[in-house]
Amino acid sequence: MEQRKKEDVIPEINNVLNKVRPYLNSEGGDIEFVDFIEGVVYVRMMGACDGCASLDYTLKDGIESLLVEYVPEVVEVRLVTDNL
Questions:
Q1: What confidence tier does 84 reach under pLDDT thresholds 50, 70, 90?
Q2: CATH number of the domain encompassing residue 14
């Protein structure tokens, strides 16, 4: 399979993130796409999602699962914090 360019994959990533955004917003949170590098999507969680006890579950079992399923180039999602 031919590898697609980063600029072709990012709109698909954002499309999936936009589908989960209403659920996050309903809990007072949000998600921001930061970057896509070598199969890894980097995101920042905001509002109530930042530091939430369910963050690992939401990130890995929710967002990562959807991205891996719908965007073949995605292999993992990693959280970016302002403390890096």
A1: very low
A2: 3.30.300.130
Rounded to a whole number of angstroms, the distance between the first and last alpha carbons of the chain is 35
Establish if 84 belongs to a structural domain: no
Q: What would the pLDDT profile of 14-67 be if each residue is shown by its tens digit?
A: 999 999 999 999 999 999 999 999 999 999 999 998 888 888 888 888 999 999
Distance CA 25, CA 9 (A): 24
Tokens, residue 66:
């959807």
Q: How many domains does the chain have?
A: 1
Could you give the 3-state DSSP secondary structure of residue 47? strand
Q: Which residues contact 50 (CB under 8 A, 6 or more apart)?
A: 29
Is 60 part of any domain? yes
Domain of 51 in residue numbering reads as: 6-79
